[in-house]
Amino acid sequence: MTPWTIAQAKMLSFLERPAPYLGVSTGRHDINEDTLDESDNLWKVFLGGQFDQYFSIEAAYIDFKKAENQGSNKVADIDLDAVTAGVQATF
C-alpha cells in the first residue's frame, strides 16, 4: 500500500464518522474611547466536528452586544457580532 492510498483511506474514515460537539461560552469586553465607554458581557455559541485525535473544524457566532455613545452629542450606536470558522490541528 502506498502512502497516498493510506492517506486517502484515512481521510475517508474522517468523513464517515466525525464526532460532533456543541458549546456555549461567555466573557466580558471593555471599550474605552473618547466618546464611547462601554463594558458588557458577551456570549458565544460554537459547534464543530472532531475527525480524529489530530483534526477538527469549528464554527462560532459571538454577540458582543451594543455599545452606545456617552455624553450629549450622540453620534452612533455600535452593535457588534462576529462569525468565525476554523480548522484546528493538534500535534
Blueprint (SSEs and pairs):
Layout: H1 3-16, E1 19-32, E2 37-50, E3 55-68, E4 77-89
Antiparallel strand pairs: 1-2, 2-3, 3-4
In short:
With 91 residues, the protein is of the alpha+beta class. The protein contains one helix and four strands; from the N terminus they run H-E-E-E-E.
Can you tag this structure with a few keywords?
alpha+beta; 4-stranded antiparallel beta sheet; 4 strands; 91 residues; 1 helix
Task: Provide structural commentary.
The chain has one helix at residues 3-16; strands spanning 19-32, 37-50, 55-68, 77-89. With 91 residues, the protein is of the alpha+beta class. The chain has a four-stranded antiparallel sheet with strand order 1-2-3-4, with no helix packed on it. Strand 1 (19-32) and strand 2 (37-50) form a beta hairpin. It is rod-shaped, with a radius of gyration of 21 Å.
Our Rg estimate from Cα atoms comes to: 21 Å
| Helix-strand pattern | HEEEE
Q: Strands across the major sheet, in which order?
A: 1-2-3-4
Count of individual helical segments = 1
Category by helix and strand content:
alpha+beta
Our estimate of the beta-strand percent is: over 45%
Approximate shape: rod-shaped
